[in-house]
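Archive maintenance. Older records in this collection stored only the sequence; we are now back-filling the structure field for every entry so that each record is complete. The fields below show one back-filled record exactly as it appears after the update. Entries are processed alphabetically, and ATP-grasp domain-containing protein is next in the queue.

ARCHIVE ENTRY
Title: ATP-grasp domain-containing protein
Organism field: Paenibacillus rhizosphaerae
Length field: 458
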Amino acid sequence: MSLTFCNVHFSQQPEKVVYISNSLMKSLKLSGKKNIQLRLGKDMVNATVKPIKKTGKHLFLSSGVRSGIHVPNAGGVMLRNLQEDEVQLGPLIGVLSDGPSTSPSQPFASRTNFIKQLLREGKRKSYIFAFTPKDINWQQETVRGYFLNDNGTFYRKTVPLPDVVYNRLPSRKAETSSSINQLRERLTRKRIPFFNWSFFNKSDIYRLLEDDNTVNRYVPESHINPSPERIKDMLERHQFLYYKPSAGSLGKGIYRLTYLPKRGYFARYRKGGGNVLLRFSNFNSLMRMLKSRHGRTLETYVIQQGIRLVEIDNCPIDFRFHMHKNGSNKWVVVGVGAKKAGRGSVTTHLKNGGSLLTPEQALSRTFGDRSDEVLQNAKKVAITLAEAIEFHHQHLLGEIGFDLGIDQDEKVWMFEANAKPGRSIFSHPSLKAEGKASVEHILEHCLYLSKFRRRDVE
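Back-filled structure field:
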């Protein structure tokens, strides 16, 4: 198989003809061929080959060929020689999301700018588009996708089912619907790689790792749907705990429970945009409050050992490690943001009053000259954790966001793993380059999964 980059042009010829420059003919090992099968995604068309004398690598597609395989636009793209007479254009990358269909300029709501960034970068080396579940026509095996113009506006084109799908569906509820389950199963049957299968469930991740001796030492003691007896025992052993919904996000519904032998039990949580701190003289009254607020939904809650993290100004700090698979299918740390909790807040979430620092700013306050060594160790732990989750997870992963803590003894702890991490850390002025690198890694992994590997390009 050979892979090469070329410039695609359109010709008005109605016949199914492709005009190929001599240099491109040589790269694709097509010299002497009279006919080829040209593919885009799952579509294929038979075409007559006509060599042309033109400097550089150029491919001219007649209108018959273009419409036959739904080529969306001209420009730079890769060509993959699959067999003696079969050539594939691509890759055709689909970004799956959702949003209000009533807004042409913001079809993916708050994710629109990120999707535009992906499309802007990706169209330099691929045919990349965004789509929603309802844009798929399963009978014709086509998608009516959103492509990006050079001026930053969307336009719609119908293309074949893509070579690879990057899943950025925003809702846990939507992901568990029968229609989305069916979508994933259909893509799997057609052998279309679909990465970032679904949101992680906290209890599932803890369960995956608890028996893995390579990483379980990094996970605080955690239990799903704990009995009151379990909670009381853990409070007495650890002094404070985090009690959080297994399928929650953005710090919603999280409690910090504390036990001080001479003062009683305390519950700290977020309510109506403010922080609440309640004191209880006995454990039973604490549990009554939790049950009155959540009832049966407590069955989906996880209890987790509290860790004394490094602090700045008496406010704990944790770290978001944004992980990606690269073009060689290896896990790498692309960005690290330090999140300082707001005063009195249960979590370090920025929406709950937290603030964002660089890891160097955060660690130098505690570890001084050794801060870089502590950070490098945490990066190694993050890669080991990502490899372990991938090993135990049954679906393709290409991106993970870890919430990691570092205690005063330099030990690294994993609090959460997110399959579709938010991108708020990249809003920090010092992390803009990492935000761009994150997008590049997503695209490189799409090339890897679609077998349009950059390292093979001539």
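Update note: The two ends are 12 Å apart (CA to CA). The longest strand covers residues 315-325.
Entry marked complete.
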